Amino acid sequence: MIEDIKKTLWATADKLRANMDAAEYKHIVLGLIFVKYISDTFQTRRTELTRKFTDSQDDYYLGDTDPELINAELEDRDYYKEVNVFWVPEAARWESLRAQAKQANIGKRIDDALLLIEAENPKLKGILDKRYARVQLPDGKLGELVDLVSKIGFGESCTIAEQTKNHARDLLGQVYEYFLGQFASAEGKRGGQFYTPASIVKLLVAILNPHHGQVYDACCGSGGMFVQSEKFIEAHGGKLGDVSIYGQEANPTTWRLAAMNLAIRGIDFNLGKEPADSFVRDLHPDLRADFVMANPPFNISDWWHGSLEGDPRWVYGTPPLGNANYAWLQHLLYHLKPTGRAGIVLANGSMSSSQNSEGQIRRAMIEADKVEVMVALPGQLFFNTQIPACLWLLVKEKRVRKGEVLFIDARKLGSMISCVQCEFTDDIIEQIASTVAAWRGESASGEDYADIPGYCRSVTLAEIAEHGHVLTPGRYVGAEAVEDDDEAFADKMQKLTETLGEQMAKGAELDQLIRSKLGGLGYEI
User: Fold this and answer.
1) What's the farthest any 2 CA atoms get from each other in the chain?
2) Which domain, by its residues, includes 126?
């Protein structure tokens, strides 16, 4: 059912955008979905409070059913804040906007509504993207989009608790993530700058187990890492309040998108007061996180600034000015607690490159025993690039398996979901996460780790040094074991030779027959 809803909504929304670039249209659609959600949850809480105020068996009972008293009490913001519901002024509520959807000035009305919402909710100040009055859509299309978003019902449950747990946030989250993915695909290269495919995020989360403490992403994009962390925590019976979210994002519109993505889920977050470059303006300089998860932009060349010379983050060497890969690795490692773990998605070249200072930095990190696990990923995982990628799992201080690195070759474990898109299934994610847990001695089932040819192998730092400190899993895990059919090599070779001879003889006969037929038609051969 939800799949049909998502596909129908996307098909209609995509049709309405006419000739508008997906990169801009994305913010128009997702902004409206955000307003619809907070308006629905506000109205649901208001309905719930009305019932509670008049129920003599309820703790909220007012002892008087006078409508004026009830209406006055309904205006108390604290009742909404206590269940993490945004206060929505009357002029900004969805039904008010929907009633004006066909008006020529609907764009300005939406912008005004966003201003009102921001004024009432300091957490959203400066976050909502007020661009509707100047949007370049054909006449009437914005109103049609408002009507379309009206079809998404986020307020169907009878209480805020039930709605939040069972329906609204889950539906909103799925629609939001689906649209992000679709926009990333529509945008091509630029889309991948803010969207990490869900299966990669799920894999990182499953390996890291971020169920407590501080979680940090220095290039958080639309906040996908944090959203998957929330789902993991809830799925394993934890409390979201046990985790503190810290992020940073340089792109202003993407920074707003991340804040909205987290706000609709009730996740408390600190993305800094404004968008900023993580290298030049580190907004969390004193943060030492329990978990770091990041998918930095691959191989960016224009990252360096003169102020970064001699920066304390470059513990293992100054990164090359023409590639930020090793700047990201060191920046993220710098922000880990002594007991912390980091999971980072990077281009495959980062595992073996020796250009400029990259080889020396990698060697220093390996010799300091900061690399815990390396995972080679399948191709076609990303919306925007065919560049093969890998996962780096780093630790500040290795507690187990000192002097060893676990290599996993997962290049053949992806499943094609379209002719151009690949992903990991939940079973494969569980398999890889279980392999890492067993290697660490943390398997829930008590399973012992064992090397599997072609898939995984635990390798000493000495052996890695023999390979020039290259971290490509395929170099270490070897080939898959071939099932022994007990047939002697000489016998098998004899059969293959005989088969080849027979096929060559048949080929010669067919060649002669073709020449004969063509000669009969008057062609010279």
Assistant:
1) 109
2) 2-186
